[in-house]
Amino acid sequence: MWLVGLLACTSDVPERIDLDEGYYLLIVPDELPSEPLPAVVHLHGHNGEPEKYLKNGSLLRDFRAGPSIVAFPAGESNDWKIGLHVDAIERDDRAFLDAVAADLRERFELTGVWLSGHSNGASMVYDQACFGAGAYDGYLPIAGGFWEPRPSDCTGPPRPVRHLHGDDDGIWPLEGRPIGWTHQVGPEPSIDVLREAWGCSAEAAPADSEGLACTAWTGCDLTLCFYEGGHKLPTDWATWHLDWIAGE
Questions:
Q1: pTM of the predicted model, to two decimals?
Q2: 3-state secondary structure at position 13
Q3: DSSP one-letter code for 165
Q4: Which end of the chain has fewer beta carbons closer than 10 Å to its terminal beta carbon, N or C?
Q5: Other Cβ atoms closer than 10 A to 225
Q6: Where is 8: in which H helix or E strand?
Q7: Is the CB of residue 201 less than 8 Å from the CB of residue 168?
Q8: For residue 106, what are the domain limits?
Q9: C-alpha closest to that of 125 among 148, 102, 91, 159
Q10: Average pLDDT, the chain
Q11: Are strands 69-73 and 23-27 parallel, antiparallel or unpaired?
């Protein structure tokens, strides 16, 4: 049954999947393996849209070559229910993202579903990690973090987290920055929220990862990696995601 779903959208044109809560765009590999695949759900940033990723041919080739399934959900009003927009957006984005994961698992035989996001999309990833119901097998935030007030506790179950961040990010700097009535939380303090909530050790050590400067925390699968550059998505982010997922 899952191969039928794959054949329906194996092309350069993505399939739009409409759910009760919203929609996502679905991309699958050009060649269909017989074994289960990983799925990555990637969230756009502020004022973004999933369609913009479809203009990046090399990105789609990286995901297809993985091989993996990738879903690009659409935020309501091009954003997510966190930070400055927590009151303006009516949709329950946690429930929407749970529904995306459930729909993918129903359509395909998967090794797991991982939630990724860039900038404000990464903020939504952290929110889902902290408060979600455990629909995802791991979290892959890029160039974002929590917003103040940061959570004092989390109800979501512990999961692997690998945060990617530019070492010269001026949009979401390492210490965060004030925006409107709130303030961004930097990458390491964002990791600390999860670490403390999930009862992990404060001890950390360097971790090997080609092309990245990473730190991993003892007793939990929490890793923070810096790449050279600013806020823009790094060219190799999809490959880094898939290599990390393969090693889990």
A1: 0.93
A2: coil
A3: E
A4: N
A5: 20
A6: helix 2-8
A7: no
A8: 2-247
A9: 159
A10: 91
A11: antiparallel
The per-residue pLDDT for range 190-217, each reduced to its tens digit, is 999 999 999 999 999 998 787 899 999 9
Residue 175 is predicted with a pLDDT of 97
CA distance 84 to 139: 22
pLDDT at res. 82? 95
H-helix or E-strand spanning residue 94:
helix 93-107
* CATH code: domain of residue 11: 3.40.50.1820
Q: Structural domain tally of the chain?
A: 1
Side chain identity, residue 183: H
Whether the link from the prior residue into 151 is cis, omega within 30° of 0, is no
* Residue 34, pLDDT score: 87
CA dist 191 and 202 (Å) reads 11
User: Mind listing the pLDDT tens digit for each residue in 132-182?
Assistant: 999 999 999 999 999 999 999 999 999 999 999 999 999 999 999 999 999
- Cα distance between residue 18 and residue 46, in whole Å: 21
Q: Which long-range contacts (CB under 8 A, 24 or more apart) does 178-185 make?
A: 179/83, 179/84, 180/84, 181/84, 182/83, 182/84, 182/147, 182/148, 183/147, 183/148, 184/83, 184/144, 184/145, 184/147, 184/148, 185/145, 185/146, 185/147, 185/148, 185/150
195: enclosing H helix or E strand: helix 187-197
What sign for the dihedral angle of Cα 80, 191, 137, 11?
positive
